């Protein structure tokens, strides 16, 4: 049986809560997820822009607002 990613993450979080590591681990996990997600989204936006897509089309395709995409594209040199 295939488990949903959210189910697996909830199980891991529940196990950690029971071990006494809850606050530090959950905050670190959530922060790390946000950072990783942002990096992936920026890289994708930059790649699409390099392929010639407009900011508006990138935003629409990624379901993000235009200002966020513009911000990501301005950070192009920060991504390695």
Characterize the structure shown.
The protein has about 80 residues and is an all-alpha fold. About 75% of the residues lie in helices and about 0% in strands. It contains 4 helices and no strands. Helix 1 packs antiparallel against helix 2 and helix 3 packs across helix 4. The N and C termini lie far apart (about 40 Å). The mean pLDDT is about 80.
Global shape: elongated
Mean pLDDT: 79
Task: Describe the oligomeric state of these chains in a short phrase.
Answer: single chain
- Elements, N to C (H/E): HHHH
Characterize the biggest β-sheet. Answer: none
| Unreliable segments of 5+ consecutive residues | none
Percent helix: over 70%
- How much strand content do the residues show? under 5%
Rg measurement, Å: 17 Å
| Total number of helices | 4
Class by SSE composition: mainly alpha
Number of strands: 0
How far the N terminus sits from the C terminus, by CA atoms, comes to 38 Å
Structural features:
80 residues, 4 helices, 0% strand, 75% helix, elongated, mainly alpha
Short structural summary:
The chain contains 4 helices and no strands. It is an all-alpha fold and 80 residues long.
């Amino acid at each position: 049986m295939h488990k949903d990613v959210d189910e697996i993450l909830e199980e891991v979080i529940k196990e950690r809560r029971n071990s006494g590591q809850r606050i530090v681990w959950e905050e670190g996990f959530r922060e790390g997820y946000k950072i990783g997600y942002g990096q992936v989204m920026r890289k994708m936006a930059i790649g699409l822009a390099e392929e010639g897509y407009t900011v508006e089309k990138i935003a629409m395709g990624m379901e993000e607002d235009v200002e966020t995409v513009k911000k990501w594209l301005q950070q192009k040199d920060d991504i390695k």
